[in-house]
Structure formats: C-alpha cells, structure tokens
Fold DUF3667 domain-containing protein.
Amino acid sequence: MSDGKLREDNICQNCNNTVIENYCSHCGQENTETRQPFYFLITHFIEDFIHYDSSFWHTIKNLFFKPGRITNEYLSGKRNSSVNPVKLYIFISFITFFLIAIIPTKTRVTEDNIKVNPPKEVQIDKKAEVKQSLDSLAINSVISKQQKDLINKAVENNTEISLNEVDIATIEQIEKKVDAQAPILTRFISKFKELKANNISTEQIAESIIEHSLKLIPKALFVYMPIFSFLLWLFYNKKKYWYFDHGIFTLHYFSVILLAVLTIYILTALSSYIEISFIVSILRFIAVIIGIFTIINFILALHRRYKENRFITLLKGLILIGINSFIFFTIIIGIVIYSYLHV
C-alpha cells in the first residue's frame, strides 16, 4: 500500500536479512527510507483510512442487515473484506465510551443538586429516626442508658458529641448495629425520601438511574462476554463448534449491542433537552424499536450461524435471551442500586 521511497541498501533495517525486492522475505518489513516527505504522511493516512473505511462499512452493513454472515466469513477464512472482530469491538467500545462521556443530559442527580441545609421537617424526621434507633440499641444493650441520654441531648440541641463522652468504639458499635437493622429496601426508600425532600423530582431520579445504567452497560458487556460465550457453548454442538467460534459470534453481536446502546443514549440525551412531549414520545419509541431490533438481530444471527431450523433457533434464542438478560441485568441493577445509595 505504501509508495514511500525505497532504500538503496538491500539490508533489512529490522532483521538484517537481505531484501530481494520491496519487502523483506524474512520479517515482511518494507525496505523504504525512514524519513519521508511530509505529503507522504497525508497520502499514507488517506490510503489507510479508505481501506479501513471500506472494510468497516462492509462489516457494519452485514452485522445489521445480514446478522451472522460476517461471523461465518471470518471463521471460514475470508478475513480481508471485514474488520478483525477484536479490533472492531475495541474501536466501537472506544467510540461508545467517548461519546457517552462527552454528551451531557439536561437533568442530572449529583451532589451539587443536594442542599447543604435540609428543610426543617427533614431534620425533625431524622431526629425521630435517631431516637427510635437509640431506643432499640439501648434495649439490646449495645449502648448504656447514660450514652443514649447523652446522644439524645446532642441531637435535640444540634450539637456535636465529644469523643471523651462517647468513645470511638461505642460509635462504631452503633454504626454496625444500625446498618444491621437497615435492610437494602429501607435504605433505598430513605434515599428516595432524601432526594425528594431536596426538591429532586421523581422524573429526575428515574432519568438519572437510566442514564447511569446506560453508562454502565458498555463496561459490563466487556466483563460479561466470556459468560455469554459459555452459554452459547452449552447450547450448541460442542464437537462441531469450539468455544473460540462462540467468542467470535459474541464479539460481533456485542458490537451491535454497543452501537444500539450508544444510539439509545443519544436519543435519551436529546429527549432531555426537548420540551415537546410528542417529539419526546417519538424518540422514546425509536429507542424501544432499537431494543427490539437487537433481539431480532440475535435470533437471525443464531439461525445463519448455527444453521438449525427456525423453531429450534427461536426457542434456543428466547431461552438464551432470558437467561442472559436475568444474569446481566441483575448485575447492572446491583451496581445501580449501590451507586444510587452512595450518591
């Protein structure tokens, strides 16, 4: 592909073998001058881009409109016309991470949204919760009656508690006991009330959770790939198909999912800036269609790759979707809840 000026010396600079023609027969390096005119950099870049662009769009077109075909071509040895599946996934991952990082949404729930001084009624509720917890701790002998009265007095007067009066060990005991008596659901509801009390609407909370989930999906997909491939390995002929084959299928399909997630995120970001409900509804409808498309794409890819009859393909596909969705979104929900409780 290179049109760089050839060296007069026929000794390869890379491996010191004799170069008979333009390329070294031992290591494959082209025998061109190290320093080239500046225009060479530009023309070389354009040539590489056109070549990559051609194979890239060929790959993308087939991934979306002929699912499974690229996987079949790659595994049959026809690899020059498409992008290497690992490079493709890395490239799409980079684009997805980059755009999600720089595209803002209008409504965000961050620490900046939370007021430093909560409303008076919230303070009253907090005092009541503290008193109730202290009563429970005193009954269970975690703290003494004197320590309970001391903390109650401090809460009533909004003063700090001296470590000389209540030692650090006792405070740690209190924290452990309170955490043990506060299940996740209770903490989740308490956090929701806290955000609501600070004038953060339910819609803002929901949008923030959705946005956070979409940001997590690309990272979670990368970690989840081996599990997805393993489930394919369990469902299909282990003698005919290697785990490697399922890995290539997974890389191609996850590239489709990444592009779908990126598109949905962009639509979500756009809808946060648009006040016209009709247009927002259209954008959300398109996002739903994209989600459905990824499911159909998966079924079609299974049929073209593993060549089973349509009913078996549909049955296995739906079972795989169910199992993978349960495992994957359980992980996502767990991470989102953890992040939500630590906003």
Notes: Confidence is low (pLDDT under 50) at residues 108-124, 159-169. The radius of gyration is 30 Å.
